[in-house]
Design brief:
The structure is a homohexamer of 194-residue chains. Helix content of chain A is 62%, strand content 0%. Chain A contains 9 helices and no strands. At the A-F interface, helix 3 and helix 9 of A face helix 3 and helix 9 of F.
Amino acid sequence: MSDQERISRFGHVELRELPEDLQVRVGAIAERSGFVPNVFRALGRRPAELRAFLDYHDALMERSDGLSRAERELVVVATSAANHCTYCVVAHGAILRVRTKDPHIADLVANNPHAVELPARERAIVDLALRLATASATLTDRDLDAARQGGLTDDEIWDVGAITALFAMSNRLAHLTALRPNPEFFLMGRLPKG
Amino acid sequence: MSDQERISRFGHVELRELPEDLQVRVGAIAERSGFVPNVFRALGRRPAELRAFLDYHDALMERSDGLSRAERELVVVATSAANHCTYCVVAHGAILRVRTKDPHIADLVANNPHAVELPARERAIVDLALRLATASATLTDRDLDAARQGGLTDDEIWDVGAITALFAMSNRLAHLTALRPNPEFFLMGRLPKG
Amino acid sequence: MSDQERISRFGHVELRELPEDLQVRVGAIAERSGFVPNVFRALGRRPAELRAFLDYHDALMERSDGLSRAERELVVVATSAANHCTYCVVAHGAILRVRTKDPHIADLVANNPHAVELPARERAIVDLALRLATASATLTDRDLDAARQGGLTDDEIWDVGAITALFAMSNRLAHLTALRPNPEFFLMGRLPKG
Amino acid sequence: MSDQERISRFGHVELRELPEDLQVRVGAIAERSGFVPNVFRALGRRPAELRAFLDYHDALMERSDGLSRAERELVVVATSAANHCTYCVVAHGAILRVRTKDPHIADLVANNPHAVELPARERAIVDLALRLATASATLTDRDLDAARQGGLTDDEIWDVGAITALFAMSNRLAHLTALRPNPEFFLMGRLPKG
Amino acid sequence: MSDQERISRFGHVELRELPEDLQVRVGAIAERSGFVPNVFRALGRRPAELRAFLDYHDALMERSDGLSRAERELVVVATSAANHCTYCVVAHGAILRVRTKDPHIADLVANNPHAVELPARERAIVDLALRLATASATLTDRDLDAARQGGLTDDEIWDVGAITALFAMSNRLAHLTALRPNPEFFLMGRLPKG
Amino acid sequence: MSDQERISRFGHVELRELPEDLQVRVGAIAERSGFVPNVFRALGRRPAELRAFLDYHDALMERSDGLSRAERELVVVATSAANHCTYCVVAHGAILRVRTKDPHIADLVANNPHAVELPARERAIVDLALRLATASATLTDRDLDAARQGGLTDDEIWDVGAITALFAMSNRLAHLTALRPNPEFFLMGRLPKG
């Protein structure tokens, strides 16, 4: 029903057009994924911004302690769903399916992050993310206490909050650019391996 | 991440436990689909309500004139997305994929019905549906005129409005019962036939 | 201040123009009321939809067990007030006055269903209805527990929820059609009998 | 369904307990109405505030030029409906019925001020009132221009705005005190004279 | 960045153009402040309204018992911030700084009244004010109980509520007139005396 | 009224505790400002995140072409006001005063970014920022066209959007940490030089 040509309202660059350091960095991602995620082609118009974006992303999404990788993706999907960001839900929904090996969880979280049934720790993670994504001005110590009661350490609370904040930015960049998800994301993690 | 046992907060009935007329009717659907959609197992506790629900559904979703089948499903997915109804988005998203043979459209509409790029007629359909789903008290003649300018006849406007209204009901029944989508829906229409 | 001619944006049919089964059915209502409620004249353009509407209505509003008749009308008035549906508040406000023999209750509920002082059971009924009418996506088990603490059985909770859902539909149909209340409703139940 | 004893959360005073000037002033209103409107009994606890309230009310509601008396009451009912203030809708709805000799207009405006069909001038009045009542921070010159196009002079625009502002206050005082409408208001203006 | 000439959308009057009693009254304020606050120049077009406004203001803001002067200004700043009223925040923020001798409190309250850290009694005052300013229709006894637990007497609760209501009016008058703050207010109370 | 000791809910680090590259970088800012802005002390707990934050900030706020420095700060103040972020409004309001040499503009924008009178180009900047800050999911080509009509190039639109997105993140980090503004910010740019 919709034409799939345009990637971004502001045009895009191809991998080979990026500065060399970004070619290496985005190239490594492309190799793992099998394609260049469109966010890098759209943000690549402004290399300094893409570089900072990647740095921030890696600092939060690839930390080895605290939240698990799957939990970090859960924050992204819940936040992006609350913000109605199609690109981020589709792309990170795919990663969440891969990380959890659960082919349904991303759709359940994306359609209704407020009410999806989750174990207590994950519920606490999602509740905090939704609060900060949609009503951060009224966040109080009570919200942090609820997260602690859900089993989060203060460092994990920072992770949830900072990832939510990062995607408050990413979601808006995707809306600004009308960013299209790569077709490959839609099916990723939905089929049993083998 | 979530246990998939419970179908509804209020329990459910199996096909064989339904009154005979409903067994025949729901049985036919199950045969086409390959499984009994959970909504019928959950509403089956109250046969008179399920019967009226099916009648209303068929009167609107299986009309032969006016909106196409795909357009009717588009209304359902947009409305259900606006209402954050997981069951209806997952189930009718599957049907929308099947009807349109487009494996991506349901996810694009569901994640952001407000901004998904659509041809003018479909945009007019979705705009009217969203208006009535989320702010019906302020609907005015201007909204209907916009739909007419998008190419809809008055009978088609009624269809869009009535389907939106029907799913205002269905979505709330799904939320009331915490209705779970059947696992089969998630993958339906995502893979090329053959 | 407003012209009272037009009943619906989409025109209407008179009783004699309905299919025979609906003539009998709506005729019986008209006999009891003394007039044909406009909703039937407006929906009568589409007999199959009117038939399903009446079936659904009767299945929920004329059940003999569970909620009392007055309580069912209370749900309708509170829901329709939350949705700002003039037709439904005026028509069912009239029925609520008749059922409760209280000439004020409908106006009190309609003007502010959130804060009207009610006995605990009725408060629980209205709270659940408002929740489902206006924010169903965030309904949780806690809302159902609150209803249970207000004295509702699970079957009564279903009734409240399903009636609220039915009027989520009716209210939107009334908004779609700009449905006018019959003049007779406004005064009904306001004067002492005798 | 609700006990009708308490008038205000903060108690009330009777006419005879008011300072003499207020006895005269409220007494004259009571003579015209046939009863002491509860707002004066509730605010009478603080005579200086009641005096200022009456002064402000009279300065705006009893001006002889500009808006008609009926139009002033229309502003009050629309504003109070938007604020869900039961006391003010019931009391001023009664006055609106009396002023317009239209037994239905108050209920139509109160249930849905946004969509009630009104002549262009009255629509412009209500639109401006609703804008200022519910979203005054985003009022712009465009809103005033729309009012001018609806036929309002600048002095009439001030009237609409100032009456809306006065009832932004009154509605909140009624909510603060949980003010009950006098039973007499409910039927006033609903029956033909004779 | 913005031209500072126009005081109000509806023009204004100078002190000498006011009726004599208002010249005396506003003159006294001007003498204390060193300038005529613009609100009096804008409202002065309608002397009866300005008189009632001053009476109401004095009845609530200059009471000698109950809330302290600083607490009354705290209510005004929190309410006006919730309503995004620039004039009232700038003018009463200045007075709050003067009353509290705290050069920062007004900005902290104005930017985020919901989350600014305050002692328990002040928190209770602000919470009640925000509730009534932004969602008065759903105010319940629980809100008043919370205020009592914060240390407020019922008379102080009335003060908070009535001041909030008064500024629900004032804020809307300022929005109606696009009222400009006098330049003198911005710096008042920000510098140490001496 | 509030104790000014705690800078962040999660503690903070001093300049000398930062990694050397950050000491140099933040030290240069501190030298220019006369103090270490608290945001760097709070984010300094996580050097990799602070580094990416500074990179992103500089890439957007210190570009030499497109929006002027003052315009970039205008975006920050408007966005942060819409998000009720006290730290960002106070800190960047100070910078906006310095950049514009206008002691009032920051307070006018912060109190009501929606209605503050601004020249057409600045109005277009603020409108786009507010749209993306508070309702990015419904951003359409029409919003971008409005920005173009206000005189913005596509590159300037990207700037406005990306700065808004960056502060969607910053504002949430400030809310997460309950970040306190340094006292020095409050008075900066309010007094004439000399």
